[in-house]
């Protein structure tokens, strides 16, 4: 399913309420305005009341004002705390990161008292529409888990599989990425990839096909996989790319956006509610796609 079609699907849930932490950001408010124009979402905006009132008047047409409530917060930390609490208390069903550092909002999400923990690993899943590439590609984890171990990688895969299902990819093909497609004991990512593949074959990782290690080119290009003579049902056909660490994922995410001009929608999965988490520099369009992705993921 292309990202634009997620926006159409999200209109089936016009009442989905989104709590936005530190919403005083033009791209965030443009995305809010676009969602309202498309016909979905109600928004509680946390942040500086006077700045928010001005920005809402500038960016949101009068007809959309009924769907917006502004709640004053004096600092980013307070805005993150209040927005997370609103989701915890079921006042909202989706959390959205505004103009606040990722670590600030994630710390609030992980708060034991009012946060959105479930006992599972929370992880970031990004869905890309890459120009001239025929199908959506999911990348995980580019933004939350810094250096996941094998157990965390299994949960990261399960979260991504849930997101894939929500956008219509059943039995996704999962490629744990490394620098090479053979197991090299000097490269820990290749050993984890091999273990994940075996866990999948033995039924420890369900509802997907995992095969790796694969380098990026063999994962996404049939020609490249054939050229190297790789025998794998995932090689050349990967739906989900599992990166070994946050640096690889973040660089891949930003390369796709800045070099390849890909469109992205991204969220944190595994929490009590989906969390819209894009880069602060991402466009309003990406934030709109992320909202649609989160709403579709919560209403699958
Ligand atoms: C791609 C576009 C967007 C971006 O560019 S984002 C930029 C890059 N991202 C970041 O800067 C965030 C990277 N991650 C972090 O900073 C940290 O891992 C994070 C999420 C803030 C957590 O850090 P801390 O609060 O220091 O956490 P900690 O490791 O001391 O753990 C505290 C408690 O939380 C738990 N926890 C941490 N990460 C978790 C996870 N993924 N899922 C579930 N639980 C998790 C952890 O087990 C610990 O629990 P407990 O207190 O022992 O019960």
Automatic annotation (TrEMBL):
Keywords: Acyltransferase, Transferase. It holds the Pfam family PTA_PTB. GO terms for molecular function: phosphate butyryltransferase activity. Residues 57-294 form the Phosphate acetyl/butaryl transferase domain. InterPro entries: P_Ac_Bu_trans, Phos_Acetyltrans/Butyryltrans, Phosphate_butyryltransferase, PTA_PTB. Belongs to the phosphate acetyltransferase and butyryltransferase family. This is Phosphate butyryltransferase.
């Amino acid at each position: 399913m292309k990202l634009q079609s997620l926006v159409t699907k999200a209109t089936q849930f016009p009442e989905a309420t989104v709590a936005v932490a530190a919403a005083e950001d033009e791209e965030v408010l443009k995305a809010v305005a676009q969602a309202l124009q498309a016909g979905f979402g109600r928004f509680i905006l946390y942040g500086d009341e006077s700045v928010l009132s001005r920005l809402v008047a500038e960016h949101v047409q009068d007809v959309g004002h009924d769907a917006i409530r502004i709640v004053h917060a004096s600092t980013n930390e307070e805005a993150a705390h209040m927005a997370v609490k609103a989701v915890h208390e079921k006042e909202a069903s989706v959390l959205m990161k505004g103009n606040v550092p990722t670590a600030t909002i994630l710390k609030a999400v992980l708060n034991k008292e009012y946060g959105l923990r479930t006992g599972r690993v929370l992880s970031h899943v990004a869905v890309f529409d890459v120009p001239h590439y025929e199908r959506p590609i999911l990348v995980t984890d580019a933004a939350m888990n810094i250096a996941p171990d094998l157990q965390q990688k299994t949960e990261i895969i399960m979260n991504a599989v849930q997101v894939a299902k929500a956008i219509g990819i059943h039995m996704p093909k999962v490629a744990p990425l490394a620098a090479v497609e053979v197991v090299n004991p000097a490269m820990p990512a290749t050993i984890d990839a091999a273990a994940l593949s075996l866990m999948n074959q033995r039924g420890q990782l369900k509802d997907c096909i995992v095969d790796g290690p694969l380098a990026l080119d063999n994962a996404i290009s049939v020609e490249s996989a054939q050229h190297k003579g790789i025998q794998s049902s995932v090689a050349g056909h990967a739906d989900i790319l599992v990166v070994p660490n946050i640096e690889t994922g973040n660089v891949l995410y930003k390369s796709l956006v800045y070099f390849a001009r890909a469109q992205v929608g991204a969220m944190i999965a595994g929490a009590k509610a989906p969390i819209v988490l894009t880069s602060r520099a991402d466009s309003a369009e990406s934030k709109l796609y992320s909202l649609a992705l989160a709403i579709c993921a919560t209403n699958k």
